[in-house]
Design brief:
about 30% strand; six-stranded antiparallel β-barrel; conserved putative lor/sdh protein from methanococcus maripaludis s2 fold; Helix Hairpins; elongated; alpha+beta; disordered C terminus; four-stranded antiparallel beta sheet
Length: about 325
């Protein structure tokens, strides 16, 4: 009897162990309405995967992919230059010279009275104080005369310096220098550089000084002052207008075909192919039109990136769906 009970307990333990192993090893059949479906939906909705379009739909929509090419652009800006009348500048230069002479005379008087006072007290202290006050007044007048040059003509002219204004006015009177104002519709040229004004025999190299004081009454835009020296200055009659062309320098970037650009939602973008039938938007800022497409410098695209060059608007419709496309 004891042997039979022991055998029964052994058989029951073996069956229980087999059931436990079956539970752990054999996988559970997937529930069609359970967690596996939720996991698949979560994976499909995972952000960053972009729009997925199968090969058949791509062929029907005429979607064509090509690598974006590298490009180099040399942008140029245009404007005009107008010679400025320097008669008011000559008057300001005269005021500065008068103030400078007064400062020199006052400085000498203060030095003389200081020496006399230190030696034998032959000069009254009040005379020395009056001379010092006059020196302060004359220096203030010189400072005002120099500042008025910048206020009337612009901060750019102050690069010549208050001491050099007299020489500039003299050279302008002799036809060896000319001051011109530069106005450009695409923005101001950089300060401190050079540019070419005029064309052909009228071409001259001008040194850019800096901002002008007043805005152009027609363009309502700020201008720059430039200085022309040499024989070319004699041909710049006051009020004469000459064209200006400024090369902004070469920049590298990518060339995007016009058919690849999509404009929507207040911006412009292209579709980049990610492989496996997936496409993602790539936003592009700025850009300059060229004969063969649009040039983008410093964009999110790199040369060789595959982009959609045909059928991009179809992808936009597929991405938005019929309801959003109808709203637009």
């Amino acid at each position: 009897m004891k042997v039979w009970v022991a055998g029964g307990w052994a058989l029951g333990g073996a069956l229980l162990g087999a059931a436990l192993v079956w539970t752990l090893v054999v996988p559970k059949a997937p529930d069609p309405d359970g967690g596996d479906k939720a996991a698949s939906a979560e994976k499909a909705e995972k952000p960053g995967q972009g729009l997925v379009v199968d090969a058949r739909t791509q062929a029907q929509a005429g979607i064509r992919i090509a690598p974006v090419t590298a490009a180099r652009s040399t942008a140029a800006r245009s404007g005009f230059a107008r010679a400025i009348d320097l008669s008011p500048l000559a008057a300001l230069a005269s005021d500065a010279e008068t103030a400078r002479a007064a400062v020199a005379a006052s400085q000498k008087e203060v030095t003389r009275l200081t020496a006399l006072t230190a030696q034998d007290q032959s000069a009254a202290p009040k005379d020395l104080e009056a001379a010092q006050a006059q020196l302060v007044s004359d220096r203030s007048k010189l400072t005002l005369a120099c500042q008025k040059i910048g206020l009337d003509f612009g901060a750019g002219l102050m690069r010549v310096g208050c001491d050099g204004i007299t020489g500039l006015a003299r050279d302008a009177a002799q036809g060896r220098a000319a001051l011109v104002r530069i106005d450009m519709t695409e923005g101001l040229p950089p300060s401190g550089g050079t540019l070419t004004i005029g064309e052909g025999t009228d071409a001259a190299v001008a040194q850019i000084l800096g901002p002008a004081a007043n805005a152009d009454p027609q363009l309502q835009a700020a201008g720059m002052l430039a200085l022309v020296r040499g024989p070319a200055a004699a041909r710049l009659a006051v009020g004469r207008v000459l064209p200006v062309h400024l090369a902004a320098g070469a920049s590298t970037g990518v060339l995007v075909p016009r058919s690849a650009l999509v404009r929507a939602d207040g911006g412009q973008f292209v579709y980049r192919a990610l492989g496996g039938g997936r496409f993602a938007r790539v936003a592009l800022d700025g850009g300059a039109p060229l004969d063969s497409g649009w040039f983008f410098a410093g964009s999110a695209l790199k040369p060789g990136d595959p982009i959609v060059v045909s059928g991009a608007t179809t992808l936009l419709g597929l991405e938005r769906g019929p309801q959003q496309a109808g709203d637009d």
